[in-house]
From TrEMBL, chain A:
A Pfam family it matches: Pyr_redox_2
Stretches assigned to coiled coil: none
Ranges for region Disordered: 1-21
Domain of life assignment: Bacteria
Organism: Citrifermentans bremense
Protein name stated in the entry: NADH-dependent reduced ferredoxin:NADP+ oxidoreductase subunit B
Domain FAD/NAD(P)-binding: 151-456
Listed InterPro entries: DPD_II (IPR028261), FAD/NAD-bd_sf (IPR036188), FAD/NAD-binding_dom (IPR023753), Helical_ferredxn (IPR009051), SudA-like (IPR006004)
SUPFAM superfamilies: alpha-helical ferredoxin, Nucleotide-binding domain
Boundaries of every Dihydroprymidine dehydrogenase domain copy: 26-135
Gene Ontology MF terms: iron-sulfur cluster binding; oxidoreductase activity
Record NCBIfam families: gltA
From TrEMBL, chain B:
Tagged with keyword Magnesium: no
Binding-site list for [2Fe-2S] cluster: C223, C226, C238
Record-given protein name: NADH-dependent reduced ferredoxin:NADP+ oxidoreductase subunit A
Top-level taxon: Bacteria
Xref: InterPro entries: Cyt_c3_hydrogenase_gsu (IPR012165), Dihydroorotate_DH_Fe-S-bd (IPR019480), FAD-bd_FR_type (IPR017927), FNR_nucleotide-bd (IPR039261), PyrK_electron_transfer (IPR050353), Riboflavin_synthase-like_b-brl (IPR017938)
UniProt keywords, alphabetically: 2Fe-2S, Iron, Iron-sulfur, Metal-binding
Coiled coil: none
Origin organism lineage: Bacteria, Pseudomonadati, Thermodesulfobacteriota, Desulfuromonadia, Geobacterales
Length: 469, 282
């Protein structure tokens, strides 16, 4: 295939549509919704890229993937080279190709998006990453680096930790990841449902790290099993990426009733513990006809779509602003709607109404209207007097966010924290303790997979510099 | 993998299991727990660390096998192994020398009480331990606790051992007598028992600590499943507890949340029992 197209010819190609499972079918199972591009679709989409000089897309990517280069290789049907470029910049391309909010990052800055549709960079990344997983023999072998004799402990096996581990191993440092849960991936495994990110993808990405010599120890809780001072004495450097932590409570009446879940508990039961997925799973989960999910982010979308798949007849998103302000990815909102999820906008919960025997019976709500913008730049919702109403619900899921987990920081008194309990780190991720770096949600509060990965990548570069001093 | 080095039956459905877990054995303090998962696909279960031997690198767990998952855990033979044991989790017990303390244990709660009594004894407290159960078959660790306590009082509901009645009987007598009234009370056991103890010590203003056992998934604060109302605040038992001021705990709320999966559990039990019955019938 040729990539010698004129700009005019490139401009004439229309943006690809990702093949998806039909909504009525997929809303009953956990199969991946997006089916991936065909080879023809992938190459044609890659040829839409104008290979412009400005490379805005790269500037929009928190890990700085060499986007024009990998797309150019794909457009020329040179998949080994495309994979090589991608792997060089991104430790988890198959994950990013699935869960990154491309429409607000790389694709938002694509020149083609100014007039018409941006290049589907995310779909192409996924295509190349999946090809690489299926064709290990086609890849140029990564040469084992010369060992530096230095060791690094990484706390947390989520996106920031995995990224940092990959980068550091590539520099020849001996890396050990400590994970508190019994399996790898952090939020990628317990938080993101399989219909968005199959577990097999995580397993394969983690396997690549293992082949690079990274050791992963599960069931080790830093702050409890071992402390930061202990790690600091045993390793030459430490990277803390232990995630966000505690669910933020709603502080409304009835939030401890039976049938009220924090998003992480609901998702963990299903994703990590396989509840409701197999008849013989030993972890129970409640299944009800009416499920109300409070919040408008990706976590809320994951909860509501999971509830639908577990059999909810009415699966509802309750959000206090309007759809325009929702932080969830556009694609997740679209998929949720197709799957029959109801969006109840400009509505805030004010109490959870119990049955006589302590179960949830309804979510008491109040209608809102949007006032002037607040500190977050979004228009502040204001209650409309006398607009209270009860939304019948057998399960209520709180997906409004998380706050810093004190478990690690409580046993590391030298670590400077901000007023929210997050670790204070400089631009390169270095904390108040020399040789101890931090990144991801424990530094920035609840954010996205790709921002955490960006932190991991930056911190790894800084750690490498620190170790070579 | 965590190897099982001993597994003995202390009472009906109650096992004492010793596991190889060197890091946990070194790090643990009284009052802390571990999250245990037998194998791939199984549930994560919180279990109190009953004791530890840092030199041998072992921890001791007391496990009441009442649910499908705990039954499978106690079925692990010596030499076998448990896939996941994570900890120690939770805050350690605040131990000080109060002088006279009462330690009250009911059923399997007695096992949870054991590390507390040990730590309190080491801190020089004068301990009266009151333990109870439905019958003599459910009274555990009497010798071990007796050795650490100034007084050991036993109650059983059927009178088959010690005095007939509940643990609250002897505790009430202690509180009523100014010469024996405890400065602090530790109570671990079924929720109604802890609630009753809290109600007895509230009026005289005796500091009372209970160890709670809510439903828990990850044990590190991430999921929020173990929340309990303590005073005016919602607390997470895994990171803020598991021990709390008994006078502030909403025991009714805790008790209610513990029944969340009763229906689902019953269905799973039925499935397991059915299989066993079928095997026997063959």
């Amino acid at each position: 295939m040729s990539n010698d197209l004129s700009p005019k010819e490139r401009m004439a190609i229309e943006r690809v549509h990702m093949p998806e499972l039909p909504a009525d079918e997929r809303s009953k199972n956990f199969e991946e919704v997006n089916q991936g591009l065909t080879p023809e679709q992938a190459v044609a989409e890659a040829q839409r890229c104008l290979q412009c000089k400005s490379r805005n897309c790269v500037a929009g990517c928190p890990v700085g993937v060499s986007i024009p280069e990998f797309i150019d290789a794909l457009a020329s049907d040179d998949l080994p080279r495309a994979a090589q470029v991608l792997r060089g910049d991104n430790a988890l391309p198959a994950v990013c190709g699935r869960v990154c909010p491309q429409e607000t990052q790389c694709e938002a800055l694509c020149v083609r998006g100014k007039k018409g549709d941006a290049v589907a960079i995310g779909y192409l990344e996924r295509y190349v990453a999946d090809w690489a997983m299926q064709h290990p023999e086609g890849l140029i072998a990564i040469e084992a680096p010369e060992p530096t004799g230095k060791s690094v402990a990484v706390v947390g096996c989520g996106p920031a930790g995995l990224t940092a581990a990959g980068e550091l191993a590539r520099q020849g440092h001996k890396v050990t990841i400590f994970e508190a849960l019994h399996d790898t991936g952090g939020v990628l495994r317990y938080g993101i449902p399989e219909f968005r990110l199959p577990k097999e993808i995580i397993d394969r990405e983690v396997a690549v790290l293992s082949r690079m010599g990274v050791t992963i120890e599960c069931n080790v809780i830093i702050g409890k099993t071992l402390t930061i001072p202990q790690l600091r004495s045993e390793f030459d450097a430490v990277f803390i990426a232990n995630g966000a932590g505690l669910p933020t409570m709603l502080n409304i009446m009835g939030e401890n009733l039976k049938g009220v879940y924090a998003a992480n508990e609901f998702l963990t039961r299903v994703n990590l513990m396989e509840a409701g997925r197999r008849a013989d799973s030993s972890t129970p989960i409640l299944q009800r006809d009416e499920v109300a999910v409070i919040g408008g982010g990706n976590t809320a979308m994951d909860c509501v779509r999971t509830a639908r798949r577990l059999g909810a007849k009415r699966a509802m998103i309750v959000y206090r602003r309007s759809e325009t302000e929702m932080p969830a990815r556009v694609e997740e909102i679209k998929h949720a709607k197709e799957e029959g999820v109801e969006f109840i906008m400009l509505t805030a919960p004010i109490a959870i109404v119990p049955t006589e025997d302590g179960w949830v019976s309804a979510l008491r709500c109040q209608k809102m209207e949007l006032g002037p913008a607040d500190d977050s730049g979004r228009r502040r919702p204001q209650a409309i007097e006398g607009s209270e109403f009860d939304l019948p619900a057998g399960i209520v899921i709180n997906a409004v966010g998380t706050s810093a987990n004190p478990l690690l920081t409580a046993t590391a008194p030298d670590l400077t924290l901000n007023k929210w309990g997050n670790i204070v780190a400089d631009e390169e991720g270095e904390t108040s303790i020399p040789g101890v770096f931090a990144g991801g949600d424990i530094v920035r509060g609840g954010a996205t997979v790709i921002l955490a990965m960006g932190d991991g990548k930056r911190a790894a570069a800084a750690i490498d510099k620190y170790l070579k001093r | 993998m965590f190897e099982v080095v001993s597994n003995e039956i202390l009472a009906e459905n109650l096992h004492k299991m010793v596991l190889v877990a060197p890091r946990i054995a070194r790090a643990r303090k009284a009052g802390q727990f571990v999250m245990v998962r037998l194998a791939q696909g199984e549930e994560r279960i919180p279990l109190t660390i009953g004791d530890a031997d840092p030199e041998a690198g072992t921890i001791t767990l007391f496990i009441q096998a009442i649910g499908a998952s705990t039954r499978k855990i106690v079925d692990t033979p010596v030499g076998g192994s448990i896939r996941d044991v994570a900890g120690p989790l939770g805050k350690e017990t605040h131990i000080t020398n109060w002088g006279r303390v009462a330690c009250v244990g009911g059923g399997v709660g007695t096992a949870v009480l054991f590390p507390l009594v040990k730590a309190l004894a080491e801190a020089g407290n004068e301990i009266t331990t009151i333990i109870g159960g439905r019958s003599s078959r459910y009274v555990i660790l009497a010798d071990e606790l007796g050795a650490l306590s100034k007084n050991l009082l036993i109650t059983t509901e059927d009178g088959s051992l010690g005095s007939k009645g509940f643990v609250t009987g002897p505790l009430g007598e202690m509180i009523a007598d100014p010469a024996c009234a405890p400065k602090a009370v530790f109570a671990v056991g079924p929720v109604p028992m802890m609630k009753a103890v809290a109600n007895m010590t509230r009026e005289p203003g005796i500091e009372t600590i209970v160890s709670l056992n809510p439903i828990m998934i990850d044990g590190t604060g991430m999921c929020g499943g173990c929340r309990v109302q303590v005073g005016s605040e919602t607390k997470f038992a895994c990171v803020d507890g598991p021990e709390f001021d008994a006078h502030l705990v909403d025991f009714d709320g805790l008790s209610d949340r513990l029944t969340s999966y009763r229906k689902e559990e019953a269905q799973r039990h039925a499935a397991t029992d059915c299989k066993i019955a079928k095997e026997v019938a063959k």
